[in-house]
Every structure is written in C-alpha cells, then in structure tokens.
Amino acid sequence: MNAGPADSFREYVHARLGTLVRAAFLLTGDSYLAEDLVQQTLAKVASRWEQIVADGNPDAYVRRVLYHQHVSWWRRWRREPLPVAAVPEVAGADPHGPTTTAIAVRQALAKLAPRQRAVLVLRYFEDLTEAQTAQVLGVSTGTVKSQARDALARLRAVAPELADLQEVPK
C-alpha cells in the first residue's frame, strides 16, 4: 500500500529535520530562530508536498524555501546593534578547541550578508556544488562564485582567528 502525501511528508521531516535545523542555525546563529525558520519553511512546503515530491527533488525545493525565508526575515527585521552597558572581554584560547572554533565560525558567519552566508553554508557545510547552490538560491553559477569569493574575503578580514583552520582547496 502506498503512503499518502501526509505520510510521505512526515517521513521526510523525520529524516531531514536535523540537517534542516543545522543549516538554519548556521544561517541565523540562534537555535530558537533556527527552529522557527525550519517550522515556517515546513509549513510553507506542507501544503504543496504532493507536487514537490512529484517534481522529483524535494530536498532542493525545501532548501530553497529555507534560504529564501531567511533572506525574507533579514529584509523584514534588520537588526540594529543594541547598546550594552559594558563591552564584553575577548576570551582567550580555549583548551576545548572545537567549542571555540564553532563559536568563532558562528560569529564570523553572522557578520556576512545573508546571501553570502547562504552560499557558504550551502557550499561548505551542506557540501553542494556551485551548480546545485545556484539552483537552490535561484541565481547563476557566476553569482555563487562571486558571492563565495567575496564572503571568504570578508571572513578573512573580520575573523583572522579562523585562518589557522584547514583551508579548502580551490
């Protein structure tokens, strides 16, 4: 007996929720916002699930909605820096390197424009090709290349502490 669209959607969400939340977290830098972003994305695709599955690649469609939803949020709620009473001190080297690296990467990604962040997340965290990234974002491959180049240059400028990480071959 074939599963209906609701069962198919439920199975998809069960299988891909962790990956979607991780990508959303890398985009937003906040676990609560990431969960909200994934929830809104899944709510948008649920009503069209049967058609999305029929088109053959639900992952690409869901990722596209996720990244477009994030850019839409960013445009709607541009965050202004909030004044604080005291400037926090910069932490020294953490003996737990992976934790420090993860925090540094999140902070560096937060300093990028939404499209640049989306390109880096898709290319280097989701491990998509330039063509796949272009398809998900609905832009040309050349735009993906230039956005990645500009984003990496910006990361080098705003987060020099990440220079010690393993470089990605060109």
UniProtKB/TrEMBL annotation:
GO cellular component, one term: DNA-directed RNA polymerase complex
Domain RNA polymerase sigma-70 region: 15-79, 108-157
InterPro entries per record: RNA_pol_sigma-70-like (IPR039425), RNA_pol_sigma-70_dom (IPR014284), RNA_pol_sigma-E_actinobac (IPR014325), RNA_pol_sigma70_r2 (IPR007627), RNA_pol_sigma70_r4 (IPR007630), RNA_pol_sigma_r2 (IPR013325), RNA_pol_sigma_r3/r4-like (IPR013324), WH-like_DNA-bd_sf (IPR036388)
Entries under Pfam families matching the protein: Sigma70_r2, Sigma70_r4
Any Gene Ontology biological process: DNA-templated transcription initiation
Family matches, as Gene3D superfamilies: 1.10.1740.10, Winged helix-like DNA-binding domain superfamily/Winged helix DNA-binding domain
Record carries keyword Transcription: yes
Top-level taxon in the UniProt lineage: Bacteria
Keyword terms: DNA-binding, DNA-directed RNA polymerase, Sigma factor, Transcription, Transcription regulation
GO MF annotations, alphabetized: DNA binding; sigma factor activity
Residues spanning the membrane: none
Family the entry assigns: Belongs to the sigma-70 factor family. ECF subfamily.
PANTHER family according to UniProt: ECF RNA POLYMERASE SIGMA FACTOR SIGM, RNA POLYMERASE ECF-TYPE SIGMA FACTO
Protein name, UniProt field: DNA-directed RNA polymerase sigma-70 factor
